[in-house]
Amino acid sequence: MVLALYASHPSQSLGRRYPEIPAPTRSEFQRDRDRIIHSTAFRRLVYKTQVFLNHEGDLFRTRLTHSLEVAQLGRSVGRSLGLDEDLIEAIALAHDLGHTPFGHAGQDVLDECMKAHGGFEHNLQSLRVVDKLEQRYPAFDGLNLCFETREGILKHCAKRNAQFLEAAEPGGVAARFLNGGQASLEAQLCNLADEVAYNAHDIDDGVRSGLLELEQLEEVPLVQRFLRQALAEYPALQGKRLLFETIRRMLSAQVYDLIASTDAALKTAQVESADAVRKAGPLVCFSAEMRAASAELKRFLFAKLYRHPQVQDTRIRAEKVLRDLFAIYTAEPQQLPSDFAGAPDAPRACADYIAGMTDRFALREHHRLTGQTLF
């Protein structure tokens, strides 16, 4: 495939932190994707959950399936826009590597526990995983990924953390959070693909779980539109087939809107290089109408699913598991594996260890250390 001028071209990559001889059969971004897939942190994603825990059902999304869905959506859109699909896939597959067990509840607890020690951000943790915590190579820590992949992984970053990163790596992946620049188009696309995938699969999982009713979704104009379209074409459609057809149509509409709106923004901006993209405003976007509809869907899911009493009950118990683990590990560092027990920054080592856990390992560790069974 011929890449557009504004795409991130692997031959023009800003490079790796540790120089390496190029691979003979793969581009730099293909190489990054392969390293991510073979990482330990990537394998753990299969047992890290989104909204529902593993024991609540075998068919709910996990961080792994979510990352695959983001990669699929991103590649589909990226192909239409002439972007580098391998870079998109690498960013999508790595963007949740730093997520804690038990979804966002885990991040909130670790941020609370680490408040006096720099806090905790899962995007920053994902970068920390690929830059430091993976230990697969003799010459360096981490995976030594390209600048463009690392830039895309660091989706958000608080100013304090950006300043810390910038001091260690001047002009590096955190610079844009301080100078108002933008990430590559591939990174911008992964951000929106992440949002699209979240909304679609949380509708699916919410109905599958019984916490949402299909009829409730008619309150949301974006869903109602495609639900009625599906019924107009297939009047007898019901149950999961109706749900799947509604979601499929909604996803397609969002993808086509994203392609058209981004294409228009690119033509208006007249960017002709990846460097010019970084100096322009955000270019990967929805139309104003689709952005508003997507935001309304997100508000609905927040109120009806993420704050559902059953989800909240699970969250409270998950938070206790991680608070207890952090307290025990900081008080008794000998309980940590040797790789973490002797670290000079003990609280950060505890956070690294806990963040790397799968849901079920965290529950086993909590039971081992406290004798309690909370799930």
UniProtKB/TrEMBL annotation:
Residues 63-199 form the HD domain. The keyword Hydrolase applies. It comes from the Bacteria. PROSITE patterns: HD. Belongs to the dGTPase family. Type 2 subfamily. NCBIfam families: dGTP_triPase, PRK01286.1-1. PANTHER family: DEOXYGUANOSINETRIPHOSPHATE TRIPHOSPHOHYDROLASE-LIKE PROTEIN, DEOXYNUCLEOSIDE TRIPHOSPHATE TRIPHOSPHOHYDROLASE. This is Deoxyguanosinetriphosphate triphosphohydrolase-like protein. The lineage of its organism: Bacteria, Pseudomonadati, Pseudomonadota, Betaproteobacteria, Burkholderiales.
